[in-house]
Amino acid sequence: MALKKSDLIKILVDEYGYEKEDLKFDAEGKPYTNAKLQALIDAEKQEAEELEKAKEEAKKPVTRVQAKKSAIADNEKILVMNGLTGALYYKSERTNSAWEFEDFGQQDVMEYSELKIMRNRYPRYFKEGWLIVLDPEVQKEFGLTEMYNHIITPDNADDVFSMNVEELEKFIDALPDGMKSSFVNMAQERVEDRRLDSKTIIDMIENKFNFSFDDNAPKDDIVSTREKVGNGIIIVDKK
Fold first, then answer.
1. Residues 6+ apart with CB under 8 A from 78
2. Among 118, 124, 120, which Cα is nearest to 78's?
3. Average of per-residue pLDDT across 1-6
4. pLDDT tens across 202-236, in order?
5. What CA–CA distance (Å, rounded) separates 120 from 226?
6. Sign of CA dihedral 34, 37, 43, 47
7. Are 111 and 76 in contact (CB under 8 A)?
8. Helix 199-209 vs helix 177-192: angle between axes, to the nearest 10 degrees?
9. Is 186 exposed, middle or buried (0-12, 13-18, 19+ CB in 10 A)?
10. pLDDT tens, 110-143?
11. pLDDT of residue 86
12. Secondary structure of the chain in the HEC alphabet?
């Protein structure tokens, strides 16, 4: 049964605090109809329901998502490897300990906590493939697993240079930029001692890196570079 206009006004005044005088005319100066008065009541009911719902939600205990804790202890020793054919040097700002690698593939250990600091402050050590983490779990933690499917190591170097020209070109394209110097230097060594003698592959490498194996023409910054990163120092120098 539809309510009378007087009943609608009474509800708005008694239950929602409206002034009776304010319910004579709407914002356009037109007299309130029953439909408009009912619409006001419906809007007030909806607002009240939403407020009550918000209050109920506020009473519920807050569930906070805890950050995933690594299973690797901060003091755990992690095996790492020099990914460059030149020298690699890093000094810890926290402990003043230093790590110096002379040759490609040379290995040492670093605490997991130190590797986390390196990742946060000098991410290029990992993104460029300068320092290779040999622990699969840390590779996963640092998001390196996929990238490490496309790096060159002492263990896979012979397989890499045994690829056909199409496979090798794709492999080079996927290499981290910092490891391309290592690849070129390793290719040079193999050309010099005739372990690499495929003209097709040699031509592809020369064209890709814009240099000649014959006269060892300048290779821009691909083979010989020097760079300083904050207090962590990276040196790539193949003489």
1. 72, 109, 110, 111, 112, 115, 133, 134, 135, 138
2. 118
3. 74
4. 999 999 988 888 876 554 544 444 443 334 444 44
5. 22
6. negative
7. yes
8. 140
9. buried
10. 999 999 999 999 999 999 999 999 999 999 999 9
11. 84
12. CCCCHHHHHHHHHHHHCCCHHHHCECCCCCECCHHHHHHHHHHHHHHHHHHHHHHHHHHCCCCCCCCCCCCCCCCCEEEEEECCCCCEEEECCCCCCEEEECCCCCEEEEEHHHHHHHHHHCCHHHHCCCEEECCHHHHHHCCCCCHHHHCCCCCCHHHHCCCCHHHHHHHHHHCCHHHHHHHHHHHHHHHHCCCCCCHHHHHHHHHHHCCCCCCCCCCCCCCCEEEEECCEEEEECCC
Q: pTM here?
A: 0.60
Query: Can you tell me which residue has the tokens 């939600």?
Result: 57
